[in-house]
Specification:
The complex is a heterodimer of chains A (about 210) and B (about 325). Chain A has about 210 residues and is an all-alpha fold. Helix content of chain A is about 85%, strand content about 0%. Chain A is built from ten helices and no strands. Chain B is about 20% helix and about 20% strand. In chain B, strand 3 and strand 4 form a beta hairpin. Chain B is globular, with a radius of gyration of 19 Å. Classes of the chains: A mainly alpha (about 210), B alpha+beta (about 325).
Amino acid sequence: MKAWISQNFSKYWNENKRTLGTILHPLSHVGSSIPFLVGLWDFWQNNLGVNPIAEITHRTGKTAIILLMLSLAISPLRLLLSWPQINKLRRPFGLWSFAYATAHFSTFVILDYGFNWQAILDAILLRKFILFGFTTGLILLTLAITSFKIFLKKMGKRWKKLHRLVYAAGILASIHFILAVKPGVLRPWPYAAVMLILLAFRLSPVQAWVKKRV
Amino acid sequence: MDKKPTLEVTPERQYTSRKEFIKALGIAGMSAAVLAACKEKPFVSGDEIPDATAIVSDSGSTPTVGSSTDDPGDPLTAYDNVINYNNFYEFTTDKEGVARLAKNYQTSPWEVKIGGLVENPQTLSIDEIRLRYTTEERIYRMRCVEGWSMVIPWEGFPVSALLEDVKPTAEAKYVRFESVYDPEELPGQKNIFYPWPYIEGLRLDEAYNDLAILATGLYGKDLLPQSGAPIRLVVPWKYGFKSIKSITKIDLVSEMPVSLWMDSAPNEYGFYANVNPGVDHPRWSQATERRIGELSRRDSLLFNGYEAEVANLYEGMDLAKFF
Protein backbone atom coordinates (compact mmCIF):
# COMPACT_ATOMS: atom_id res chain seq x y z
CA MET A 1 0.00 0.00 0.00
CA LYS A 2 2.70 2.39 1.07
CA ALA A 3 4.82 1.51 -1.91
CA TRP A 4 1.81 1.96 -4.19
CA ILE A 5 1.16 5.43 -2.81
CA SER A 6 4.75 6.56 -3.09
CA GLN A 7 5.03 5.15 -6.58
CA ASN A 8 1.89 6.88 -7.75
CA PHE A 9 2.84 10.06 -6.01
CA SER A 10 6.23 10.19 -7.67
CA LYS A 11 4.60 9.43 -11.00
CA TYR A 12 2.10 12.23 -10.52
CA TRP A 13 4.88 14.50 -9.29
CA ASN A 14 7.10 13.88 -12.29
CA GLU A 15 4.23 14.40 -14.72
CA ASN A 16 3.03 17.64 -13.15
CA LYS A 17 5.87 19.45 -11.49
CA ARG A 18 6.47 21.57 -14.56
CA THR A 19 2.86 22.83 -14.54
CA LEU A 20 2.94 23.20 -10.75
CA GLY A 21 6.04 25.34 -11.01
CA THR A 22 4.31 27.62 -13.50
CA ILE A 23 1.20 28.00 -11.34
CA LEU A 24 3.30 28.85 -8.30
CA HIS A 25 4.53 32.05 -9.92
CA PRO A 26 1.23 33.97 -9.75
CA LEU A 27 0.45 32.23 -6.45
CA SER A 28 3.63 33.64 -4.92
CA HIS A 29 2.29 37.15 -5.55
CA VAL A 30 -1.09 36.30 -4.05
CA GLY A 31 0.49 34.61 -1.02
CA SER A 32 2.96 37.42 -0.42
CA SER A 33 0.20 40.02 -0.36
CA ILE A 34 -1.79 38.15 2.32
CA PRO A 35 0.12 39.55 5.35
CA PHE A 36 -0.50 43.04 3.99
CA LEU A 37 -4.23 42.37 3.56
CA VAL A 38 -4.47 40.80 7.02
CA GLY A 39 -2.71 43.87 8.42
CA LEU A 40 -5.15 46.20 6.66
CA TRP A 41 -8.06 44.18 8.01
CA ASP A 42 -6.68 44.26 11.56
CA PHE A 43 -6.10 48.00 11.27
CA TRP A 44 -9.68 48.43 10.06
CA GLN A 45 -10.97 46.26 12.91
CA ASN A 46 -8.81 48.09 15.46
CA ASN A 47 -7.15 44.78 16.16
CA LEU A 48 -3.48 45.78 16.32
CA GLY A 49 -3.20 45.52 20.09
CA VAL A 50 -2.15 47.93 22.81
CA ASN A 51 0.81 49.42 20.92
CA PRO A 52 -0.25 49.43 17.25
CA ILE A 53 2.85 51.16 15.91
CA ALA A 54 5.13 48.60 17.53
CA GLU A 55 2.84 45.86 16.20
CA ILE A 56 3.01 47.18 12.63
CA THR A 57 6.79 47.50 12.94
CA HIS A 58 7.14 43.92 14.14
CA ARG A 59 4.74 42.44 11.58
CA THR A 60 6.29 44.13 8.56
CA GLY A 61 9.79 43.23 9.75
CA LYS A 62 8.98 39.58 10.35
CA THR A 63 7.18 39.28 7.02
CA ALA A 64 10.15 40.81 5.20
CA ILE A 65 12.47 38.26 6.82
CA ILE A 66 10.16 35.32 6.06
CA LEU A 67 9.86 36.33 2.40
CA LEU A 68 13.62 36.78 2.18
CA MET A 69 13.98 33.25 3.54
CA LEU A 70 11.46 31.96 0.98
CA SER A 71 13.48 33.61 -1.76
CA LEU A 72 16.62 31.97 -0.41
CA ALA A 73 14.84 28.61 -0.13
CA ILE A 74 14.18 28.36 -3.86
CA SER A 75 17.66 27.33 -4.98
CA PRO A 76 18.01 24.55 -2.37
CA LEU A 77 14.53 23.27 -3.25
CA ARG A 78 15.34 23.37 -6.95
CA LEU A 79 18.39 21.22 -6.28
CA LEU A 80 16.74 18.83 -3.85
CA LEU A 81 13.65 18.28 -5.99
CA SER A 82 15.29 18.65 -9.41
CA TRP A 83 12.69 21.28 -10.11
CA PRO A 84 14.10 24.01 -12.37
CA GLN A 85 10.68 25.62 -12.94
CA ILE A 86 10.59 27.18 -9.47
CA ASN A 87 13.70 29.23 -10.11
CA LYS A 88 11.42 32.03 -11.30
CA LEU A 89 10.05 32.38 -7.78
CA ARG A 90 13.20 33.96 -6.42
CA ARG A 91 12.33 37.33 -7.89
CA PRO A 92 8.72 37.74 -6.64
CA PHE A 93 9.67 36.66 -3.11
CA GLY A 94 12.70 38.95 -3.15
CA LEU A 95 10.68 41.90 -4.41
CA TRP A 96 7.93 41.32 -1.85
CA SER A 97 10.52 41.08 0.88
CA PHE A 98 11.82 44.47 -0.26
CA ALA A 99 8.25 45.83 -0.25
CA TYR A 100 7.67 44.77 3.37
CA ALA A 101 11.12 46.02 4.36
CA THR A 102 10.14 49.38 2.84
CA ALA A 103 6.90 49.34 4.86
CA HIS A 104 8.96 48.44 7.95
CA PHE A 105 11.32 51.37 7.41
CA SER A 106 8.47 53.75 6.57
CA THR A 107 6.70 52.77 9.79
CA PHE A 108 9.87 53.68 11.67
CA VAL A 109 10.35 56.99 9.87
CA ILE A 110 6.74 58.14 9.57
CA LEU A 111 4.58 56.52 12.23
CA ASP A 112 7.17 56.00 14.94
CA TYR A 113 9.38 59.08 14.59
CA GLY A 114 7.07 61.38 12.64
CA PHE A 115 9.83 62.53 10.24
CA ASN A 116 11.99 63.71 13.12
CA TRP A 117 15.14 63.45 10.99
CA GLN A 118 17.47 64.35 13.83
CA ALA A 119 16.20 61.41 15.90
CA ILE A 120 16.07 59.11 12.88
CA LEU A 121 19.65 59.85 11.87
CA ASP A 122 20.75 59.41 15.47
CA ALA A 123 18.98 56.05 15.57
CA ILE A 124 20.50 54.80 12.31
CA LEU A 125 24.02 55.84 13.19
CA LEU A 126 24.12 55.14 16.91
CA ARG A 127 21.88 52.12 17.41
CA LYS A 128 23.73 49.13 16.09
CA PHE A 129 20.62 47.11 15.36
CA ILE A 130 19.05 49.88 13.28
CA LEU A 131 22.28 50.26 11.33
CA PHE A 132 22.16 46.55 10.52
CA GLY A 133 18.53 46.83 9.44
CA PHE A 134 19.21 49.94 7.37
CA THR A 135 22.08 48.23 5.57
CA THR A 136 19.84 45.24 4.85
CA GLY A 137 17.33 47.63 3.34
CA LEU A 138 19.95 49.27 1.13
CA ILE A 139 20.99 45.87 -0.21
CA LEU A 140 17.39 44.88 -0.91
CA LEU A 141 16.84 48.21 -2.68
CA THR A 142 19.87 47.63 -4.91
CA LEU A 143 18.76 44.10 -5.74
CA ALA A 144 15.18 45.20 -6.41
CA ILE A 145 16.29 47.89 -8.87
CA THR A 146 18.68 45.58 -10.69
CA SER A 147 16.15 42.75 -10.81
CA PHE A 148 14.79 44.03 -14.12
CA LYS A 149 15.83 42.18 -17.27
CA ILE A 150 17.74 45.16 -18.75
CA PHE A 151 20.20 45.02 -15.88
CA LEU A 152 20.59 41.28 -16.22
CA LYS A 153 21.57 41.78 -19.86
CA LYS A 154 23.73 44.84 -19.29
CA MET A 155 25.65 43.52 -16.33
CA GLY A 156 26.31 39.98 -17.50
CA LYS A 157 28.49 38.11 -15.04
CA ARG A 158 28.61 41.01 -12.63
CA TRP A 159 24.86 40.67 -12.13
CA LYS A 160 25.25 37.27 -10.52
CA LYS A 161 28.03 38.57 -8.30
CA LEU A 162 25.98 41.57 -7.23
CA HIS A 163 22.97 39.45 -6.41
CA ARG A 164 25.05 37.28 -4.11
CA LEU A 165 24.60 40.24 -1.76
CA VAL A 166 21.29 38.62 -0.86
CA TYR A 167 23.27 36.28 1.41
CA ALA A 168 24.67 39.29 3.24
CA ALA A 169 21.13 40.63 3.50
CA GLY A 170 20.03 37.37 5.14
CA ILE A 171 22.82 37.54 7.70
CA LEU A 172 22.38 41.26 8.42
CA ALA A 173 18.61 40.91 8.78
CA SER A 174 19.09 38.11 11.32
CA ILE A 175 21.58 40.16 13.33
CA HIS A 176 19.21 43.13 13.14
CA PHE A 177 16.42 41.02 14.68
CA ILE A 178 18.64 39.49 17.37
CA LEU A 179 20.02 42.86 18.48
CA ALA A 180 16.58 44.46 18.44
CA VAL A 181 15.40 42.41 21.41
CA LYS A 182 16.80 42.18 24.92
CA PRO A 183 19.46 39.56 25.62
CA GLY A 184 17.75 36.30 26.53
CA VAL A 185 14.63 36.96 24.45
CA LEU A 186 14.45 33.96 22.14
CA ARG A 187 12.02 35.18 19.47
CA PRO A 188 14.64 35.89 16.75
CA TRP A 189 16.53 32.63 17.13
CA PRO A 190 14.24 30.29 15.15
CA TYR A 191 14.42 32.78 12.27
CA ALA A 192 18.20 32.97 12.55
CA ALA A 193 18.44 29.17 12.59
CA VAL A 194 16.39 28.79 9.39
CA MET A 195 18.43 31.54 7.76
CA LEU A 196 21.67 29.76 8.68
CA ILE A 197 20.44 26.46 7.23
CA LEU A 198 19.44 28.18 3.98
CA LEU A 199 22.79 29.91 3.72
CA ALA A 200 24.62 26.67 4.50
CA PHE A 201 23.24 25.29 1.23
CA ARG A 202 25.45 27.82 -0.54
CA LEU A 203 28.64 26.28 0.83
CA SER A 204 30.36 24.10 -1.73
CA PRO A 205 30.78 20.99 0.52
CA VAL A 206 27.05 21.09 1.28
CA GLN A 207 26.22 21.54 -2.40
CA ALA A 208 28.44 18.59 -3.34
CA TRP A 209 26.77 16.46 -0.68
CA VAL A 210 23.30 17.40 -1.92
CA LYS A 211 24.16 16.75 -5.56
CA LYS A 212 25.49 13.32 -4.69
CA ARG A 213 22.26 12.38 -2.97
CA VAL A 214 19.83 13.69 -5.55
CA MET B 1 -6.51 46.91 51.67
CA ASP B 2 -9.96 47.70 52.93
CA LYS B 3 -12.60 48.05 50.30
CA LYS B 4 -13.34 51.61 51.18
CA PRO B 5 -14.51 54.01 48.52
CA THR B 6 -11.55 55.51 46.74
CA LEU B 7 -12.99 58.97 47.15
CA GLU B 8 -12.00 58.89 50.79
CA VAL B 9 -8.33 58.66 49.99
CA THR B 10 -6.46 61.78 49.14
CA PRO B 11 -6.13 62.22 45.41
CA GLU B 12 -2.47 62.12 44.49
CA ARG B 13 -2.56 65.60 43.01
CA GLN B 14 -3.79 67.15 46.20
CA TYR B 15 -1.52 64.90 48.21
CA THR B 16 1.69 65.89 46.46
CA SER B 17 0.69 69.51 46.27
CA ARG B 18 0.19 69.64 49.99
CA LYS B 19 3.43 67.82 50.60
CA GLU B 20 5.33 70.20 48.38
CA PHE B 21 3.67 73.16 49.95
CA ILE B 22 4.90 72.03 53.35
CA LYS B 23 8.32 71.26 51.91
CA ALA B 24 8.52 74.63 50.21
CA LEU B 25 7.72 76.40 53.45
CA GLY B 26 10.72 74.87 55.15
CA ILE B 27 13.25 75.17 52.38
CA ALA B 28 15.33 78.23 51.61
CA GLY B 29 14.07 80.64 48.97
CA MET B 30 16.15 79.33 46.13
CA SER B 31 14.99 75.74 46.52
CA ALA B 32 11.43 76.91 46.77
CA ALA B 33 11.85 78.84 43.56
CA VAL B 34 13.26 75.73 41.87
CA LEU B 35 10.31 73.70 43.13
CA ALA B 36 7.87 76.25 41.85
CA ALA B 37 9.61 76.37 38.48
CA CYS B 38 9.40 72.60 38.14
CA LYS B 39 5.70 72.59 38.82
CA GLU B 40 3.59 73.73 35.97
CA LYS B 41 0.32 73.27 37.81
CA PRO B 42 -0.68 75.61 40.60
CA PHE B 43 -1.65 74.07 43.91
CA VAL B 44 -5.07 72.54 43.76
CA SER B 45 -7.50 73.88 46.30
CA GLY B 46 -10.08 71.67 47.95
CA ASP B 47 -13.04 72.53 45.77
CA GLU B 48 -11.09 71.71 42.62
CA ILE B 49 -10.59 68.07 43.51
CA PRO B 50 -11.88 66.16 40.54
CA ASP B 51 -14.81 63.81 40.96
CA ALA B 52 -14.25 60.10 40.81
CA THR B 53 -14.12 59.24 37.16
CA ALA B 54 -15.38 55.94 35.93
CA ILE B 55 -13.26 54.42 33.23
CA VAL B 56 -15.24 51.69 31.55
CA SER B 57 -13.26 48.66 30.52
CA ASP B 58 -14.27 46.01 28.05
CA SER B 59 -14.10 43.31 30.69
CA GLY B 60 -17.39 44.56 32.10
CA SER B 61 -16.10 45.71 35.46
CA THR B 62 -15.81 49.41 36.06
CA PRO B 63 -12.70 50.39 37.97
CA THR B 64 -12.86 53.72 39.71
CA VAL B 65 -10.19 56.25 40.46
CA GLY B 66 -9.96 59.53 42.28
CA SER B 67 -8.68 61.45 39.29
CA SER B 68 -8.56 60.93 35.56
CA THR B 69 -5.17 62.53 35.00
CA ASP B 70 -1.68 62.54 36.47
CA ASP B 71 -0.09 65.62 37.97
CA PRO B 72 0.78 67.40 34.72
CA GLY B 73 -2.75 66.70 33.50
CA ASP B 74 -2.11 63.72 31.24
CA PRO B 75 -4.95 61.21 31.03
CA LEU B 76 -4.74 57.81 32.67
CA THR B 77 -3.88 54.89 30.45
CA ALA B 78 -7.00 52.80 29.82
CA TYR B 79 -7.40 49.95 32.30
CA ASP B 80 -7.56 47.40 29.49
CA ASN B 81 -4.22 48.56 28.16
CA VAL B 82 -2.61 48.53 31.60
CA ILE B 83 -3.60 44.91 32.21
CA ASN B 84 -2.85 43.64 28.70
CA TYR B 85 0.62 45.03 27.99
CA ASN B 86 3.04 43.72 30.57
CA ASN B 87 6.72 42.97 30.79
CA PHE B 88 6.72 39.96 33.10
CA TYR B 89 9.32 37.53 31.78
CA GLU B 90 8.37 34.96 34.42
CA PHE B 91 5.41 34.22 32.15
CA THR B 92 6.59 35.16 28.66
CA THR B 93 8.66 37.78 26.88
CA ASP B 94 5.58 38.61 24.78
CA LYS B 95 4.03 41.68 26.38
CA GLU B 96 0.57 40.91 25.05
CA GLY B 97 0.77 37.25 26.01
CA VAL B 98 1.34 37.71 29.74
CA ALA B 99 -2.29 38.34 30.72
CA ARG B 100 -3.51 35.08 29.21
CA LEU B 101 -0.72 32.98 30.74
CA ALA B 102 -1.03 34.66 34.13
CA LYS B 103 -4.80 34.35 34.29
CA ASN B 104 -4.98 31.45 36.72
CA TYR B 105 -1.82 32.12 38.69
CA GLN B 106 -2.58 31.73 42.40
CA THR B 107 -1.37 34.65 44.51
CA SER B 108 -3.16 33.65 47.68
CA PRO B 109 -2.03 32.48 50.16
CA TRP B 110 1.13 34.61 49.89
CA GLU B 111 3.89 35.42 52.31
CA VAL B 112 6.48 38.15 52.31
CA LYS B 113 9.59 37.63 54.42
CA ILE B 114 11.24 40.82 55.58
CA GLY B 115 14.66 40.34 57.13
CA GLY B 116 18.37 40.84 56.77
CA LEU B 117 19.92 43.74 58.65
CA VAL B 118 16.84 44.64 60.67
CA GLU B 119 16.01 44.66 64.36
CA ASN B 120 12.55 43.32 63.79
CA PRO B 121 12.38 40.66 61.07
CA GLN B 122 8.90 39.57 60.09
CA THR B 123 7.02 37.19 57.89
CA LEU B 124 3.72 38.69 56.85
CA SER B 125 0.89 37.15 54.93
CA ILE B 126 -0.61 39.32 52.22
CA ASP B 127 -3.76 39.61 54.34
CA GLU B 128 -1.74 40.89 57.28
CA ILE B 129 -0.05 43.41 55.02
CA ARG B 130 -3.40 44.63 53.72
CA LEU B 131 -4.71 44.98 57.26
CA ARG B 132 -1.67 46.71 58.66
CA TYR B 133 -0.94 49.22 55.91
CA THR B 134 -3.59 51.59 54.65
CA THR B 135 -3.25 52.12 50.95
CA GLU B 136 -3.80 55.36 49.13
CA GLU B 137 -4.12 56.16 45.47
CA ARG B 138 -1.00 57.33 43.67
CA ILE B 139 -1.21 58.28 40.03
CA TYR B 140 2.22 57.70 38.55
CA ARG B 141 3.81 57.71 35.15
CA MET B 142 5.46 54.39 34.31
CA ARG B 143 8.31 54.67 31.82
CA CYS B 144 9.58 51.42 30.33
CA VAL B 145 13.22 51.24 29.27
CA GLU B 146 11.90 50.09 25.86
CA GLY B 147 10.57 53.57 25.18
CA TRP B 148 6.87 53.38 26.00
CA SER B 149 5.00 54.73 28.99
CA MET B 150 1.68 54.68 30.81
CA VAL B 151 -0.12 56.67 33.50
CA ILE B 152 -1.37 54.31 36.19
CA PRO B 153 -3.47 54.91 39.32
CA TRP B 154 -1.87 52.60 41.88
CA GLU B 155 -3.16 51.60 45.28
CA GLY B 156 -0.24 51.34 47.65
CA PHE B 157 1.62 52.43 50.75
CA PRO B 158 5.09 53.95 51.14
CA VAL B 159 8.00 51.52 51.41
CA SER B 160 9.11 53.67 54.33
CA ALA B 161 6.10 52.54 56.39
CA LEU B 162 7.28 48.95 56.16
CA LEU B 163 10.90 49.91 56.85
CA GLU B 164 9.90 51.78 59.98
CA ASP B 165 8.26 48.62 61.29
CA VAL B 166 11.23 46.32 60.70
CA LYS B 167 13.79 48.92 61.83
CA PRO B 168 16.91 48.66 59.63
CA THR B 169 20.15 48.47 61.61
CA ALA B 170 22.97 50.95 61.15
CA GLU B 171 24.79 48.61 58.73
CA ALA B 172 21.84 48.45 56.35
CA LYS B 173 22.60 50.43 53.19
CA TYR B 174 20.38 48.85 50.55
CA VAL B 175 17.05 47.12 50.21
CA ARG B 176 17.04 43.92 48.20
CA PHE B 177 13.73 42.73 46.74
CA GLU B 178 13.12 39.22 45.46
CA SER B 179 10.27 37.98 43.26
CA VAL B 180 8.52 34.65 43.52
CA TYR B 181 10.45 31.63 42.23
CA ASP B 182 8.10 28.95 40.96
CA PRO B 183 9.24 27.44 37.65
CA GLU B 184 6.42 24.88 37.72
CA GLU B 185 3.84 27.63 37.45
CA LEU B 186 5.93 30.34 35.81
CA PRO B 187 6.95 29.00 32.39
CA GLY B 188 9.33 31.88 31.68
CA GLN B 189 11.56 30.78 34.55
CA LYS B 190 12.56 27.80 32.42
CA ASN B 191 14.54 30.23 30.24
CA ILE B 192 18.01 29.42 31.51
CA PHE B 193 19.51 32.63 30.14
CA TYR B 194 18.24 34.55 33.16
CA PRO B 195 19.46 34.00 36.73
CA TRP B 196 16.07 33.53 38.38
CA PRO B 197 14.54 34.65 40.66
CA TYR B 198 14.11 38.28 39.68
CA ILE B 199 16.07 40.54 42.01
CA GLU B 200 15.92 44.30 42.34
CA GLY B 201 17.33 46.78 44.78
CA LEU B 202 17.18 50.33 46.05
CA ARG B 203 19.58 52.40 48.06
CA LEU B 204 18.11 52.89 51.53
CA ASP B 205 17.47 56.60 51.00
CA GLU B 206 15.76 55.85 47.70
CA ALA B 207 13.51 53.35 49.45
CA TYR B 208 12.66 55.95 52.09
CA ASN B 209 11.66 58.50 49.45
CA ASP B 210 7.96 59.12 49.69
CA LEU B 211 7.36 58.33 46.01
CA ALA B 212 8.52 54.71 46.47
CA ILE B 213 5.51 52.57 47.22
CA LEU B 214 4.52 48.96 47.58
CA ALA B 215 1.40 48.57 45.50
CA THR B 216 -1.35 46.03 46.03
CA GLY B 217 -3.83 47.38 43.54
CA LEU B 218 -4.48 49.60 40.56
CA TYR B 219 -7.59 51.41 39.35
CA GLY B 220 -9.12 50.75 42.76
CA LYS B 221 -8.95 46.98 42.34
CA ASP B 222 -6.57 44.34 43.61
CA LEU B 223 -3.60 43.74 41.33
CA LEU B 224 -4.06 41.05 38.72
CA PRO B 225 -1.27 38.47 38.37
CA GLN B 226 0.09 40.10 35.19
CA SER B 227 0.59 43.38 37.07
CA GLY B 228 2.58 41.73 39.85
CA ALA B 229 -0.05 40.51 42.31
CA PRO B 230 -0.34 40.45 45.18
CA ILE B 231 2.32 43.02 46.03
CA ARG B 232 4.90 44.88 43.97
CA LEU B 233 7.25 47.80 44.12
CA VAL B 234 6.56 51.05 42.23
CA VAL B 235 9.42 53.54 41.87
CA PRO B 236 8.10 55.96 39.26
CA TRP B 237 11.32 57.91 38.63
CA LYS B 238 13.13 54.77 37.49
CA TYR B 239 12.63 52.58 34.42
CA GLY B 240 9.81 50.10 34.84
CA PHE B 241 12.00 47.05 35.35
CA LYS B 242 13.06 48.41 38.76
CA SER B 243 9.47 48.10 39.95
CA ILE B 244 9.76 44.41 40.83
CA LYS B 245 6.61 42.31 40.81
CA SER B 246 5.12 39.59 43.00
CA ILE B 247 7.52 40.14 45.89
CA THR B 248 8.21 37.29 48.34
CA LYS B 249 11.31 38.57 50.10
CA ILE B 250 12.63 41.93 51.22
CA ASP B 251 16.08 42.05 52.80
CA LEU B 252 18.07 44.94 54.20
CA VAL B 253 21.68 44.48 53.15
CA SER B 254 25.00 46.31 53.35
CA GLU B 255 26.21 45.61 49.79
CA MET B 256 24.60 46.85 46.59
CA PRO B 257 22.33 44.05 45.35
CA VAL B 258 22.93 42.74 41.84
CA SER B 259 19.64 42.77 39.96
CA LEU B 260 18.67 40.16 37.38
CA TRP B 261 19.17 42.65 34.58
CA MET B 262 22.54 43.88 35.87
CA ASP B 263 23.59 40.24 35.93
CA SER B 264 22.20 39.40 32.45
CA ALA B 265 23.37 42.47 30.56
CA PRO B 266 25.70 44.65 32.66
CA ASN B 267 26.46 47.03 29.77
CA GLU B 268 22.75 47.72 29.27
CA TYR B 269 21.34 47.89 32.78
CA GLY B 270 22.82 49.54 35.83
CA PHE B 271 21.73 49.60 39.45
CA TYR B 272 20.17 53.05 39.41
CA ALA B 273 18.17 52.90 36.16
CA ASN B 274 16.83 56.41 36.66
CA VAL B 275 14.78 57.67 33.74
CA ASN B 276 17.17 59.99 31.95
CA PRO B 277 16.72 61.30 28.39
CA GLY B 278 20.37 62.35 28.40
CA VAL B 279 21.76 58.87 28.97
CA ASP B 280 21.13 56.48 26.09
CA HIS B 281 20.61 52.78 26.33
CA PRO B 282 22.77 51.03 23.70
CA ARG B 283 19.62 49.81 21.94
CA TRP B 284 17.26 52.68 22.42
CA SER B 285 17.64 56.42 22.58
CA GLN B 286 15.91 57.46 25.78
CA ALA B 287 15.19 60.98 24.55
CA THR B 288 11.59 60.25 23.62
CA GLU B 289 8.85 57.82 24.51
CA ARG B 290 5.46 56.72 23.25
CA ARG B 291 2.65 57.09 25.74
CA ILE B 292 0.39 54.08 25.23
CA GLY B 293 -2.74 55.33 23.49
CA GLU B 294 -0.99 58.26 21.82
CA LEU B 295 0.25 58.42 18.25
CA SER B 296 3.27 60.68 18.35
CA ARG B 297 6.26 60.43 20.64
CA ARG B 298 6.75 62.83 23.51
CA ASP B 299 9.98 63.98 25.10
CA SER B 300 11.11 61.92 28.06
CA LEU B 301 11.77 63.80 31.28
CA LEU B 302 14.68 63.56 33.70
CA PHE B 303 13.65 61.27 36.56
CA ASN B 304 10.43 60.72 34.60
CA GLY B 305 9.28 64.19 35.63
CA TYR B 306 9.81 63.62 39.36
CA GLU B 307 12.95 65.74 39.48
CA ALA B 308 11.66 67.95 42.27
CA GLU B 309 11.01 64.96 44.49
CA VAL B 310 14.11 62.84 43.86
CA ALA B 311 16.95 64.89 42.32
CA ASN B 312 18.44 65.51 45.77
CA LEU B 313 19.13 61.77 46.09
CA TYR B 314 21.70 61.97 43.33
CA GLU B 315 23.43 65.26 44.02
CA GLY B 316 27.02 65.23 42.83
CA MET B 317 26.65 61.86 41.09
CA ASP B 318 27.63 61.35 37.46
CA LEU B 319 24.36 59.95 36.16
CA ALA B 320 25.98 58.72 32.94
CA LYS B 321 28.39 56.63 34.99
CA PHE B 322 25.83 55.47 37.55
CA PHE B 323 23.16 54.62 34.98
